[in-house]
Design goal:
The protein is of the alpha/beta class and about 325 residues long. It folds into 3 domains: about 1-185, Helicase, Ruva Protein, domain 3; about 185-240, no CATH class; about 255-330, Ubiquitin-like (UB roll), CATH 3.10.20.30. Helix content is about 40%, strand content about 15%. It is built from 11 helices and 10 strands. It starts with about 25 loop residues before the first helix and ends in a 5-residue tail after the last strand.
Length: about 325
């Protein structure tokens, strides 16, 4: 769209968290389990302070959104602590009997959350915990380890929603010391997308403006809504939704975009469509891993790949770069 490529990502919408979730309150452990399947977490916070910690409406500015952020962090950390406590005695015994390394043992305890042993190692080394027996770890050290692990393995971004209702956005700067914080107005984004879909305006998600269409006659209600949207964009710049998604994928998770093609000369598929596809990959992804995202048969029959920009042949283990255009040569076609 107008030279802008949108790449789908999977979002998991989970119900609101309530204090005590780690003990099963509300949706409790089901919420935490669902949230922990994600590579990153988006905490949607009413930055205007117009809802309390239970999600009930209150007068704008009367609730401190920092309280919401802290309690969500605490719930995740306490849940991590519960998971570790269940296996702590068994784990320490395995380590004492030299049947397990501390990083490997911890990785197996958190395997269901997608936490990598390298991430655990990173925290253990930063805290010098490998130099101590686990039985000698203090309660403070255990909690600090779990907090650090959660921040690395499940990074959290704050969607400062209803930012347009704030008198000023100073509070987002206070949050930004600990989190990536994006001022947002989800209601405005939804309204603009609906208006664009109906053909009333020209708007691209992430843009800082929109244009009306001269051949469309708008009602007074529609004009009023679009005027309010203009005011929101003037105040916070963009609705923040696309900026939030970009921040998560490119800055937090550090994913790269790679374009697989079938014709490396024309940068197209067999039908002549230029750059027909785009894949978000880990920054360490290889040519063979790209092949797997296309089809497992192509990966199984991988011979080599061609960098369409340099025309050079590259091997299976060649690490890819952001913006690469790659043709995969395989003995097997998609079946």
């Amino acid at each position: 769209m107008d030279g802008i490529r949108f790449i789908p990502i999977k979002l998991i919408d989970v119900a609101g968290l309530v204090p005590g979730a780690h003990d099963g309150k509300g949706l409790g452990n089901q919420f935490l389990t669902d949230a922990m399947k994600a590579d990153a977490l988006v905490h949607v916070v009413d930055i205007s302070g117009s809802t309390d910690i239970q999600g009930q409406p209150v007068t704008i500015g009367t609730h401190d959104p920092l309280e919401d952020i802290k309690f969500v962090e605490d719930e995740f950390d306490l849940w991590f602590k519960q998971l570790l406590d269940r296996e702590w005695y068994k784990l320490t015994k395995e380590i004492e009997q030299k049947r397990a390394k501390i990083s490997d043992g911890l990785a197996r305890r958190f395997t269901g959350l997608g936490i990598k042993e390298t991430e655990i190692d990173q925290v253990l080394n930063s805290m010098s915990l490998k130099l101590k027996k686990p039985t000698d770890w203090s309660d403070d050290e255990i909690m600090k380890f779990l907090k650090s692990l959660r921040k690395i393995a499940k990074p959290m971004v704050i969607a400062a929603n209803k930012a347009d209702l704030c008198e000023d956005l100073t509070i987002t700067k206070n949050i930004s010391d600990n989190f990536t914080t994006i001022p947002c107005s989800a209601e405005t984004e939804l309204m603009l997308r609906k208006a664009a879909k109906s053909g009333l305006i020209q708007y691209v998600s992430g843009g800082n403006d929109f244009q009306g269409k001269g051949d469309k006659q708008l009602s007074d209600e529609q004009n009023k809504a679009l005027h309010l949207a203009k005011n929101v964009l003037t105040k916070i710049g963009v609705t923040g939704i696309q900026k939030l998604l970009n921040s998560i994928t490119l800055d937090i998770l550090k994913l790269i975009v790679v374009y697989p093609v079938e014709d490396e000369s024309k940068l197209s598929n067999k039908d002549g469509q230029v750059l027909p596809d785009a894949r978000l990959l880990d920054s360490s992804a290889t040519a063979k891993e790209l092949a797997f995202t296309i089809h497992h048969d192509i990966c199984s029959g991988f011979l080599h790949a061609i960098d369409a920009k340099t025309k050079q042949r590259i091997g299976a283990d060649q690490q890819l770069k952001n913006g690469d255009v790659i043709k995969i040569i395989s003995t097997l076609s998609r079946g």
